[in-house]
Amino acid sequence: MVNLLSSPAETAPVVDTTRDQIVADIRATLGASVVDSLVKPGDDVWIRVTTESWNSSMQKLQAMGFDYFCFLSAIDWLPSPFGRGEDDPTEPAPERDSTIRPGYTGGETRMQMLVRLVNSRTHVGVNVKADVPNDGYTIDSISNVFAGANWHEREAHEMFGIGFVGHPDLRNMYLPADFEGFPMRKDFPLLARMVKPWPGIVDVEPLPGGDAEPEEVS
Amino acid sequence: MTILNDPVNAKLGDRAQLSYIASQAADARLNVELETEGMTLNIGPQHPATHGTLRIIARLDGEQVLWAEPSCGYMHRGYEKLTEVRSFPQVTSLINRIDWLGSFANEVPFILAAEKLMGVEAPPRAQWIRTILFELSRIANVSLFLGDLGVQLGAITPVFIAFRDREYVLNLIESATGGRFHPNFDRIGGLKDDLPAGWVDETKVVMKKLRNFCDEIEALLFGNEIFQSRTRGIGVIPRDVAMQYGLSGANLRASGVDWDLRRDQDSPMAWNKVDFKVWTHPDGDSFARCWVRLQETREATKIVDQLLDGIPAGPVMAKVPKIIKVPEGEAWVSTENPLGEMGYYVVSRGDSGPFRVKIRSASFNNISITPWLLRGVYVPDIITILASLYFILGDIDR
Predict the structure, then answer these.
(1) pTM for this model (two decimals)
(2) From the CA of A4, how many Å to the nearest CA of chain B?
(3) Which residue of A has its CA nearest to B317?
(4) Within a domain: residue A166?
């Protein structure tokens, strides 16, 4: 039986020579392009490269043997101003913390790119991140390195509003061409949750034996 | 002929290359004799070959495709955004509907990612039953592909056999989970329930039926001359192109890549407890993709048989808190789903719901190769190639 009080780091192996070696190799090949790296033993590898070296880092990683393109996406680190979408629309919006806090391997910007590449020989993958500058949200396209990134970049462009310099064709994939806004950004409201209160907060069953009266369901 | 000078095509197998050159030479003769006018052909959104609503815009020169581009988005439901306003246990009911033919397999990688972040491990019995249900959803999914394949090439019989035999598997899934298509059975820390009485014996009988089904399909379809001539050498994907586009599953293995996530990565699931073969094919054409899927279905029935013999005793649920809060962190988990590699990149902020979930679905990558692959093929081959790539629209658009 697993003890929930012990943290996962205690049960996992502390040293992971394979992944430590991978990070050492990547640092040797990419040099100053690597800003930060993280190894979780027995789990995964994260590295962050500079925005300028995004494209060239991908080329070098591909040449190193990370030739399988798994996916490309972006993360918006801004905490959602709408919380979990459970606010009552008739009440004034509550105050929320809007400090941008990046995840693993840090970061200075609101948007970050995230690419996963896998070594097809050893089957070990790396998660590569890069900051996307706050003014204009543009970064180099990597579709000339991995042809499969073409569609993923189109998706990221449409959902996060990130511009990809050198991408052949950034048409929308899912949304109509005249759609305004970028749905996956945290400050884009989920409209279904804005127009009507979330039933979870209205339709509360009374506790057995409690004296709370059931609230009316509109 | 720019396509001939393409360095990628130079790497094709001998037979594929020869047939390709012959067809190109025939075209060159035809072009001298006949002047054709370009036209645009819309395939879909409603077309039996598209497994849903995918529209393909093809620019034709006579019978040949100059370029083709799928137009997605008819099934986009915005699951990545919706997960941000759901709690972790609620997410499974959404992601169930990504690949609706193998629903249970969609739930597993997400639950594994949440368990990884929480440091929880499901008890062995739960892992075994998970693996069995996972393989059953693979069989249900791919058996429909094998039947549907015949319809798209003009053979009506296989689809009836496939629907008949898939029903046995769906009945099993229903009796164990309560849902034919959307089980929503996987929980953080284990499973909702144990198996019903008599389920193991019943499953063994069904697995025997499914092996017969595979034999039947192999005899009916794969030995058929028309089927062979319409799929062999058609839609060839070389290995390095497959890697660049991130193809996965049978599509990748049909290009000669020996890579199966069930065997090649550490997973708490029970795949490493059984003995199975990973099928590959060197040709990379439509026939190879269909053939690999047929072998995989048969292999899956053997995996289920082996697992049924050794289900360990014990609980099916670990001790987890009533209200699940997932510690801060990021995790990536992917599994070898019926359609290929399906993975979730989960970012948690210590809340009861995820901060961001990136859904990496197999079909999105698999179908992104079509603009490259459909260039230069003939119109009837579009259908064969799309059928053999095997995608599900919910899995493309999410």
Answers:
(1) 0.83
(2) 7
(3) A1
(4) yes
Residue A215 lies in a domain: no
Contacts of A70 in chain B (CB under 8 A): 246, 334, 341, 343, 360
Q: Where does the pLDDT of residue A187 fall: very low under 50, low under 70, confident under 90, or very high at 90 and above? A: confident
Residue B13 — pLDDT band, cuts 50, 70, 90?
A: low
Torsion over CA of A34, A37, A43 and A44, rounded to 10 degrees?
A: -20
| Residue A173 contacts B, CB cutoff 8 Å | yes
Residue A38: inside a domain: yes
Assigned token pair, B317: 């649920």
Q: Is residue A120 part of a domain?
A: yes
- Closest Cα in chain B, distance from residue A40 (Å): 10
Q: Do A73 and B78 touch (CB under 8 A)?
A: no
Can you tell me the distance from the alpha carbon of B34 to that of B45, in angstroms, rounded to the nearest whole number? 32
Instruction: In whole angstroms, give the CA distance from residue B138 to residue B191.
Output: 19
Domains of chain B and CATH, by start: 79-397 (1.10.645.10)
Residues B67-97: pLDDT tens digits? 888 888 788 888 888 888 888 888 888 888 8
Please give the residue of chain A at the shortest CA–CA distance from B344.
Answer: A71
CATH of the domain at A119: 3.30.460.80
Rounded Cα gap, residues B291 and B149, in angstroms: 11
Supply the DSSP symbol for B219.
I
**Residue range of the domain that includes A42:** 12-89+97-202
Q: Is the ipTM of this complex over 0.85?
A: no
Q: Quote the number of domains for chain A.
A: 1
